[in-house]
Write a structure and sequence with these properties.
There is one protein chain. The chain has about 100 residues and is mainly alpha-helical. The chain has five helices and two strands; from the N terminus they run H-E-H-H-E-H-H. The protein has a two-stranded parallel ribbon with strand order 1-2. About 25% of the residues are buried.
Length: about 100
């Protein structure tokens, strides 16, 4: 069994989220529950390791599909994420007003 050092895992997660922020991404999307765990739940700790603010929403692929099909963020469990997903509701409201 190969195990990864926790600090290395946090550094990688922080780097991936930071790269996405640098590219002006709205969010990261992953089909993998373990990736979601590392990229969403560990963001506060990863931010400390990479010494920068993170706070980028990480969605499961089915959540993104659900949004595209008209499901509400609350129905998709997005309030349970660690990184804020408020921007999704803001964009949905702006799209409905347009």
């Amino acid at each position: 069994v190969i195990t990864m050092n926790r600090e290395t895992s946090l550094r990688q997660a922080g780097r991936h989220v930071g790269d996405a922020l640098d590219a002006d991404a709205d969010c990261l999307v992953t089909p993998c529950p373990l990736c979601h765990l590392n990229l969403d739940m560990q963001q506060p700790e990863a931010a400390k390791v990479v010494n920068r603010d993170l706070g980028l929403a990480v969605l499961h692929l089915p959540q993104l599909v659900g949004l595209a099909l008209g499901a509400e963020p609350k129905e998709l469990g997005m309030a349970k994420h660690i990184a804020p997903t408020d921007w999704v509701e803001d964009r949905l409201a702006a799209g409905a007003a347009a």
